[in-house]
Amino acid sequence: MRRYNGFCKGVLWPILHNVASVYSSPTDVDHTGDDAQAESDREEYDADYAEYSMDDVAQGPIHGDGGREGELWGAFTAVNRYFRDTIIQCFNEGDLIWIHGFHLMILPSFLTRRIPMAKIGIFFHTPFPSSEIFRTLWCREDLLRGMLNADQVGFHLFEYARHFLTCCRRLLGLNYGMFPDSSGGHNLAIDTNGRHVSVTSIHAGVEPHIINQVLGHRSTVAQVHNIRNQLAGKVIFAAIDRMESLKGIPLKLIALERFLQRCPQWAGKFVLVQVGISAFERGDDYTKTRAEVIAMVNKINDRWPGTVQFQECAESEMRLQQRMALLRAADVAMVTTIRDGLNLIPLVS
């Protein structure tokens, strides 16, 4: 599991967000105990993949240097196989298999070999990078072919879908376009091995009636009045972000500092209420981001007292009602994520 997380969070996560390096040092890998299992995983994958990838090119040493990269890749493929085995046990003919997240990018390939009649969709909740970034991955072709064994690939934004299409064309030599469907319309799809893989962009939304119920609740109204009374006479900026580098809190604070340096007449007239959601699972990224944010908040408040009110808490302590109260009380909501697929923090319960 440590190696699996190392591949997902240490390799895929930054690349998918168009960042070549988020971490200052490679993700640590524990080399003790299960080296033989990791090697077995890689050998099993190589044997399996050559059959169902429908690739005429022989499978060579394409997974990095065969050391750290090979171990991470072996763990990643092993977890995808665990999901495959469980799905096969539960699958009935006619079922639709809907895969969510970049953690299971190659799962469609494993599934189509065992249950070729299955209808499979995979949806990405992260961005997808440009081909110039994605091609830096040693396993780029395997990941793309894994996704293309699904019948439909979905993204939140057309920008991400366009990057995926471009990667398939530039890295795999595949064509894409608008192809007729069974209902008489046309779908954007990739032509691969005699199949048309649909590519869609589907936006997420919120439930307005739930939001309105929360906003009208007595405790929410009381919290709103309490926040406004505490910060009376000031313009209130509110932000709720996870404590990791890609969420952009340090950049937000830098912008705030420069604004006050250039426009000192605004000092004391506004306040930024910044809520940081602890992200212990991000490891060094969380630790370094947290230290940087605290240092910058102290620096700003030393020069302009009361400008930033910073609070760190667990996600369980900042549920929908607390978030709605803060955002309702604010004059400006600030979302400064560097790059994001679906930001769950502001509105999701």
From TrEMBL:
Pfam families from the UniProt entry: Glyco_transf_20 (PF00982)
GO cellular component annotations of the record: cytosol
Gene3D superfamilies xref list: Glycogen Phosphorylase B
A single BP term in Gene Ontology: trehalose biosynthetic process
InterPro entries, sorted: Glyco_trans_20
Signal peptide boundaries: none
SUPFAM superfamilies: UDP-Glycosyltransferase/glycogen phosphorylase
GO molecular function terms noted in the UniProt entry: trehalose-phosphatase activity
PANTHER family the UniProt entry points to: ALPHA,ALPHA-TREHALOSE-PHOSPHATE SYNTHASE [UDP-FORMING] 5, TREHALOSE-6-PHOSPHATE SYNTHASE
Record-given protein name: Uncharacterized protein
